[in-house]
Amino acid sequence: MSSANLLLHPVRLRVIQAMLGHPSLTTRELADRITEVPPATLYRHVGTLLDAGVLEVVAERKVRGAVERSLRLSTERASVSDHDEALADPEALRAGFLAYLGSLASLMDQYLAGPRGSLEDDLVGFRQVAVHATDDEWREALSAFRAALAPLAERETAPAGARRRVLGTVSMPVP
User: Tens of pLDDT along 46-98?
Assistant: First the structure.
């Protein structure tokens, strides 16, 4: 299965998003975070991600006769290759993009449903900006952006007062 077909499925994308920023989660914790997906469906998709190496089992323990697994996201396997042949099909690309947007909308719904301060206090925002850049300039800007975020994304433990945040980006040339 191509990385696009594997990762851009709406349920599997929600699992990956739920895992981001956590050193590990149990399958039960995943089910508690992704309540809109029936547990049997969720566990089937977790199994698919395990088989593909996107999730890894880091611990197992017995809980009331069952085995509870703690899972870790393999971030290097959790992204779609730019060269994935599935992305050459406009309909497949559109479906994957809509799954991505839907997963962001789901995170916003969770934010809105929970206790919160003001958007300013919580540093919530969404905006578009258009720039004029050559391909090389844009590659350089994206590289600098990734480098600036890497120390925060690669932390093993969060310092006191840190909150888990999700930053979604879309970059495309437009007329």
Answer: 999 999 999 999 998 888 888 889 999 998 888 887 788 878 888 888 888 88
DSSP code per residue over the chain? --HHHHHTSHHHHHHHHHHTT-S-EEHHHHHHH-TTS-HHHHHHHHHHHHHTTSEEEEEEEEETTEEEEEEEE-GGGSS--TT-GGGGSHHHHHHHHHHHHHHHHHHHHHHHHS----TTTTT-----------HHHHHHHHHHHHHHHHHHHT-SSPPTT--------------
How high is the pLDDT of residue 92? 82
Query: Which residues is 68 bridged to in the sheet?
Result: 61
The residue with greater pLDDT, 52 or 172, is 52
Measured CA to CA, the distance from residue 97 to residue 91 in angstroms comes to 10
